[in-house]
Amino acid sequence: MNNSRLIKIVLIAPLIFLSAACQDYLDVVPDNVPTMEHAFANRNEAEKALFTCYSFLPNEANPDYNPAFNAGDEVWTYWPMTEDYFSLDSYNIARGLQNKATPLMNYWDGFNGRSMWQGIRMCNIFIENIDNVPDIADFEKQRWIAEAKFLKAYFHWYLFRMYGPIPIADENLVITADPEEVKVVRQPVDSVVNYIASLLDEAAGDGFSGLPSVIDSRTTELGRVTSVAALAIKARVLVTAASPLFNGNTDFQSLENPDGTALFNSTYDPGKWERAAEACRVAVVAAEEAGVQLYTFSSSQVVLNDAQKQEMSIRSAVTEKWNSELIWGATNDDIDNARPSYWIQLFACPQLDPGITNLSLKGKFAPTLKMAELFYTANGVPIDEDKTWDYADRYQLRTTTSDDVGMQPNYQTVGMHFDREPRFYASIAFDGSTWLMRNGTYNIQSKLGQHSAKRQSRLYSVTGYFTKKVVNWNLVATSSAVTVEPYPWPIIRLADLYLLYAEALNESGQSSEALVFINKVRERAGLRSVEHAWSEYSTNPSKYTTVVGLRSIIQQERGIELAFEGSRFWDLRRWKTATRVLNAPIYGWDIEQSTYEAYNRRILLFRQSFDNLRDYLWPIHEHALQINPNLAQNPGW
């Protein structure tokens, strides 16, 4: 493919033996018995069937196929786009164009060649037939069954997070099933959550059966799931289920099946937070016992100062292959399954070298100004709370000095870019900042006419910011080629799990214990403890001493630590704060200007809107409702 121009692509994940006639999620009947027998005739064929189960995993790393990237408010892109994309669905969701006639990013019926229901169907086929394989050791068979159960749980979870209450497909229907049996109903939220959690428990096993805690065959099996991954995903599921969207949500109390079964429990249950906290505790213990730990950068091959080492600890926690913090990483790619995170790096990286232009570097994955404002000051508190930081004049120009970390000396930029925490400079680049790579440090200069600026109708940041965090520092570009070091996309890493645990502890009345895990994450980020930062620098020094105050701190900590990793999109929904946050305008800098004064003016890019009833859940396709009248449509659609 010509990297200078991406066209709209939908690639179908290879199926080993599924019939091409499987069009609907309701078609759960094995339809080719001779082929089925062949697929489980021996160990090698059965392993191919297991890999087919994996092939339905959504492409989490591709910025156009994961709704959590471009469908929210973290990043923005120039519009309209005629090149440099695989799918426009997520961009259109961000612009308020989701609909029920042709739902965008429709993973229910199938999107990007992946239907979660077909994935579930494949897992059921595998579990039902694996006992027929004659030449497989029992311990290996039990592991493969556990993997299929994990994947089945994950596909249910992926649908649940998007659609809320869903049908449960624990077994495939027999070929003689009555037509009415095929017309399945959605199950209540609590039933779905309990089913997913139970499957993940079965997959994790008890130490003697189930998934391994670590991958021993690292050359051939990295990317396959472990018991730690199963427990961590269970923790995420239960934290989500305990959150306001699914716990005591009265907005959806009218959602029910045609027979009157209520699908949302509108009564708040504090016990759900206690259950989530326990699941997080178990996952944290399992992760740490398996050797998972927060990543810190070290290299004998390059000489870096302390600030640079700190930056690389933050960046490489995401971008270093199979680093110590990764619990489960996505290794699939839509081009050749060998380059995970390839496209997000090209979408994020601007033109770095003023002497080189490479059209593969898009620079269009652009953080919004609200994300730049989200990061803390150097004192570790929000910019509007730090009593030593000039919040009122944050948009006024200042001149940098050689003492300003992460910025070019004798350059002008707004006050908002000064004296910020290390994660700000590690995650975001801007006009006047520096960009550390293994082969050198580059100056980002993006005013009109400069090398990182807009020079045509594409290949530029519409906000003036660039997403440094997701680019591996080994990327090398020449005028004729670009070398990208792929890395598994972090579906979940330890910092995420620590913050989930902190949130569950706080909500279940254990705020002092919650601080322990927040502070672990902050320490790696180069910040003092919450207690110290708020007591010394905040205009609200006792904020962390209340459940409500610490909740706000945890939510902002997640927004910062997990920025641009696909977390914020779902967090805003489960917290039910999207109504407020996603009804705010999208701002950037005036990138088509050449002077310091003109460029550093805040301009409106788009006015987002978010409907409190409609937009928290995906619509089910109208056609699916016509086929199966037992399905209830989500509220507002």
Description:
Helix content is 37%, strand content 8%. α5 packs antiparallel against α6, α10 runs parallel beside α16 and α17 packs parallel to α19. The N terminus is likely disordered. The protein is built from 23 helices and 14 strands. Among the domains are: 226 residues, Alpha Horseshoe (Serine Threonine Protein Phosphatase 5, Tetratricopeptide repeat); 184 residues, no CATH class. It has a two-stranded antiparallel ribbon. A two-stranded antiparallel ribbon has the order 2-12. A two-stranded antiparallel sheet has the order 4-5. It has 637 residues and is mostly helical. The chain is globular, with a radius of gyration of 24 Å.
Key words describing this protein structure:
single chain; 637 residues; mainly alpha; Serine Threonine Protein Phosphatase 5, Tetratricopeptide repeat; two-stranded antiparallel sheet; 23 helices; 37% helix; disordered N terminus
List the helices and strands and how they pair.
Blueprint: H1 33-39, H2 43-55, H3 67-70, E1 75-76, H4 89-94, H5 116-129, H6 138-163, H7 179-182, H8 189-204, H9 218-221, H10 227-242, H11 271-289, H12 306-319, E2 326-330, H13 342-348, E3 366-367, H14 369-374, E4 397-399, E5 412-414, H15 422-427, E6 428-430, E7 434-437, E8 440-443, E9 465-467, E10 476-477, E11 482-483, E12 489-493, H16 494-507, H17 511-524, H18 530-537, H19 547-561, H20 568-574, H21 578-581, E13 585-589, H22 596-599, E14 602-607, H23 622-627
Antiparallel strand pairs: 1-3, 2-12, 4-5, 6-9, 7-8, 10-11, 13-14
Helix pairs in contact: 2-5, 2-6, 5-6, 6-8, 6-10, 8-10, 10-11, 10-16, 11-16, 16-17, 16-19, 17-19
